[in-house]
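User: Okay, second chain of the day. Same drill as before: sequence in, structure tokens out.
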Amino acid sequence: MLARPAVAARTAVFVQTRNMATLKEIQTRLKSITNISKITASMKMIASTKTTRAQRAMKVARAYGKVSNDFVKQAEVEKAAEAKELLITVSSDKGLCGGIHSSLARQSRKYLAQNPDAPVVVLGDKAKVQLQRAYPNNIKYSFSQLGSTIPTFDETSAITST
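Assistant: Same drill. Structure tokens below.
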């Protein structure tokens, strides 16, 4: 009889030894790292687009700022005898730059400690939250979401009429 001899088939059994990852675990880790890198790349593209848009808006606004600075220099305006002082604190609504917001709030609190009756206008939510803890009665106006869209005439009128 011409029969083939029986060959023992080897079956691969994945036995994990101590502190060693199996092939499947390594593949899932590599896949998750690839996914994270894709997410990071898309976040970079979004941030780049937002930065470019903000720089374009800044160039347009710079011309208005230059004109207003020149006007103030040429007007030779002096402080009135009974003029009130107004503290304007400008921060952002969100973000990961906590040190900037903390130092803005700290400087504002120093100023308010010396001038306890001074009214405050806060632009941005981060500084508003920090200033409300210590001086809630001094905050007269607060504005948020200012950088998301171009301000309207009504919004700028409300800020300047303070």
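DSSP finds four helices and three strands in the chain.

User: Thanks, on to the next one.
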